[in-house]
Amino acid sequence: MNNNDGNDDLPPDEGAPAPQAETVAVAPQAETSAAGSPPSTQAPSGGGPGKESREGKSYPVGMVAGVRLRPGGRVIACDASTISLRVGMSVMVQAERGPEVGIVTVGAMSRPVRGRLARVLRIADPRDLDRSASDGTRANDALVVARGAVAKMNLPVKMFHAELQGGGRVTFYFASDARVDFRDLVRDLGNRLRLRVELRQVGVRDEAKMVGGIGSCGRELCCSTFLPRFAPVSIKAAKVQNIALTPAKVSGQCGRLKCCLVYEEANYVEAAKSLPRMGKRVATPDGIGRVGDLDVLRGRVRVLFQDQPPKVYEGAQVKQAPPLPNNGNGGDS
């Protein structure tokens, strides 16, 4: 949620006319909004002498800290100036949408600064934290109103998150598989909430990241805890790791392939290079057979025989079998 340092984000008096609703904004990719506001155009302060990079360019050196503006959001680099920051501290950051409360995840240290950074204004005091909590409560109340309006208009929309921002504005995040005319919804919400309303569409992965949950492993979702961005995942990653290709095994909370499938894919690919492929004819100490299963991490091969039970061998004990005599069918390897 966005938190404003002043009181200009409070709605007008009850008798005041409602502000005109903003035009609907539909963003197909809202990872930046879900993860944290982009850095503001603040130059680093208190920088020391320049430091030469690997490209030969010289960059100013300043005190830089990593701050997460939202739970599960990406960590942004911030100019800490002369403020001493430690991990876990709550700070006020001058982000693009105004001052926001964030949590320090990387302590301030001297680093070369490339480009402009968001600026840490100060360590958050109880007043800042109370305002942040109040904005969270108001955003939840606005979300309840928005869900009621969606249900009343019978729109094919899943409204799942709201953020209260400075200047009397509220942003609603939603998921929808269909194109919907939101003009009546925006007008109705603007009149009822007396706030300027913006709607932002996100994909199912961003929805899971913002909402959070528990994965099939029993832990909190990777995307809502530590993943800074989504990496491409293909079904090949599951095949390489010999995972059953069933939705319960390979699908995450969002209904897409699990992000964790790519964590160990490279290790499996590297380890499998020294093992024969599935179905290939191999020579073993007990004769010729075919590869029936692979234990890639342990480097073991399960071989099927025609005249004896299957046996398990170490990868070094299994060699490629000589090809069968050509009987007109092109042979078999």
Q: Gist?
A:
21% of the residues lie in helices and 28% in strands.
Q: What features would you highlight for this structure?
A:
five-stranded antiparallel beta sheet, five-stranded mixed barrel, SH3 type barrels, about 20% helix, about 325 residues, 7 helices, alpha+beta, disordered N terminus, 14 strands
Structure description:
It is elongated, with a radius of gyration of 28 Å. α2 packs across α3 (183-193). The longest helix is centred in the middle third of the chain and has 28 residues, at 126-153. It contains seven helices and 14 strands. Among the domains are: 59-124, no CATH class; 215-270, no CATH class; 274-333, SH3 type barrels, CATH 2.30.30.140. β4 and β5 form a beta hairpin. It has a five-stranded mixed barrel. Strands 13-12-11-10-14 form a five-stranded antiparallel sheet, with no helix packed on it. Strands 7-8-9 form a three-stranded mixed sheet, sandwiched between helices. The chain has helices at residues 31-35, 126-153, 183-193, 204-211, 235-240, 247-250, 265-272, and strands spanning 48-52, 58-68, 75-79, 90-95, 98-112, 118-123, 158-165, 169-175, 196-201, 281-284, 287-295, 300-304, 311-314, 319-320. The chain has 333 residues and is an alpha+beta fold.
Which SSEs are present, and which pair or pack?
Elements (H helix, E strand, L loop, with lengths): L30 H5 L12 E5 L5 E11 L6 E5 L10 E6 L2 E15 L5 E6 L2 H28 L4 E8 L3 E7 L7 H11 L2 E6 L2 H8 L23 H6 L6 H4 L14 H8 L8 E4 L2 E9 L4 E5 L6 E4 L4 E2 L13
Parallel strand pairs: 3-6, 8-9
Antiparallel strand pairs: 1-2, 2-3, 2-5, 4-5, 4-6, 7-8, 10-11, 10-14, 11-12, 12-13
Helix pairs in contact: 2-3
